[in-house]
Design brief:
Distance between the termini: 28 Å
Order of helices and strands: EEEHEHEHEHHHHHEHEHH
Strand content: 15-25%
Largest sheet: 8 strands, mixed
Number of strands: 8
Length: 261
């Protein structure tokens, strides 16, 4: 899969699917890679030109030291669109990816056709929460945060019933560079988009797992209240990675919103 020099770093990306279809840009969560979207590929690739990328600090993209910002992560997405000569795209991001989507639609409204924000938030305080996660990762490596992360990301029943999927995600977490994890944690720690997202004009769908303990349904409703005309879908029996726990319901919601199912 190719790399592009975007904003001074090497960004790893993949383009697949229907070359004649509309473009759909997917943005991954904290501590995952572009492969977190694998469950969606059978449905999405039939209909879209799908662009996936490893966020700065993740997967096969570079992981520079220091704090990142949501604006920097957004500039990476814009840079990738420019590199691929994509003027406008549908955007779907989960967790951190959804935070990037909010900023992209705020700062660059002409680049976003329809916006899908999944298991995300416009503000994720308190700052001490992120300080603790950063310190734990820096002291013990990603092994120090992986178990608690898996517990937040999946319901107990899913962890029992689909250990293969859980193991795949566990490997993504453990493979995340500590510098990249810490840099993105700093971006989330400093983020507050609660007022700025009022300006988003793109048609917006918000998806959240009913059992998400991190970016809760209440946080999803806060976004819905701020973005005029936005729609909310709550997926039952799903925690944070709702696209993996409930792939069929997730796909159906996205495809219906994009008018192609």
């Amino acid at each position: 899969m190719p790399h592009a020099t975007i904003n001074g770093i090497q960004l790893h990306y993949k383009v697949s699917g229907n070359a004649d279809g509309p473009t759909l840009l997917l943005s991954n969560s904290l501590a995952s890679t572009l492969n977190m979207w694998d469950p969606q590929m059978p449905a999405f690739e039939k209909r879209f030109r799908v662009v996936r990328y490893d966020s700065r600090g993740h997967g096969q993209s570079e992981a520079p030291d220091g704090a990142y910002s949501i604006d920097t992560l957004t500039a990476d997405a814009v840079g990738l669109l420019d590199h691929l000569d994509i003027a406008k795209t549908h955007f779907c991001g989960l967790s951190k990816g959804g935070m990037v989507g909010q900023r992209l639609a705020t700062l660059h409204p002409g680049r976003v056709d329809r916006l899908i924000l999944c298991d995300t938030a416009s503000y994720m305080g308190p700052a001490e929460l992120w300080e603790g996660r950063i310190q734990l990762a820096e002291d013990k490596g990603m092994a120090g945060v992986v178990d608690a992360t898996i517990e937040r990301w999946f319901t107990e029943s899913f962890r029992v019933n689909d250990p293969t999927a859980v193991a795949t995600v566990r490997a993504m977490i453990l493979g995340t560079p500590v510098a990249g994890f810490a840099g993105c944690c700093r971006a989330i720690q400093a983020m507050d988009q609660r007022e700025s997202i009022r300006s988003i004009a793109a048609p917006t769908l918000i998806i959240v797992g009913a059992d998400d303990p991190s970016t809760t349904p209440d946080k999803a409703r806060e976004i819905q209240e701020q973005i005029r005309g936005s729609k909310l879908v709550v997926l039952p029996e799903a925690a944070h990675l709702s696209n993996i726990e409930q792939p069929e319901k997730f796909d159906q919601a996205v495809l219906h919103f994009l008018g192609v199912n």
